[in-house]
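Re: the 156-residue chain
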Amino acid sequence: MNKKTTILLHVASWLAILCAPLMYIDRSATFDVLRYLFFSMTPALLMVVFYSNYVWFVPKYYIPGNRTQFSIINICMVILLSVFLHLWMDFGHNVFPTPHRIPRKVDIIANHRALIFAIRDIFNMTIAAAMATMMRLAENWHRSELARQEAEKERT
């Protein structure tokens, strides 16, 4: 895959993901940029997980063979970002209360719904990390394959 195609794939994917919060904004209210930015935190954190793995963790830890360190770093990052996301949602639901609901605290232990959302976020961030790893490994394989084919051409 050439560089232009890779960039277009990244841009198209993240445009779709960044438009996702528009589906969850309360439609009874007028469009509010602050509300959109509040709901954009989840896609932003998915981008952080994806690109930290794609740009840094996979080349530095996974490809050289430090898979244990790679896994520990990813587990810690996903858990920390998931906790941050729930604190952010707790803050935001009190700042942007919906008219038909009472503002509530997001308590992962006492509220089973918050636990379900935490599991969903951890799952999504894990998928983002896995996608970044697979993309980086596929790119490395593609470069190796091209180099192998070029070497075979030169030999014959």
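The mean pLDDT is 83.
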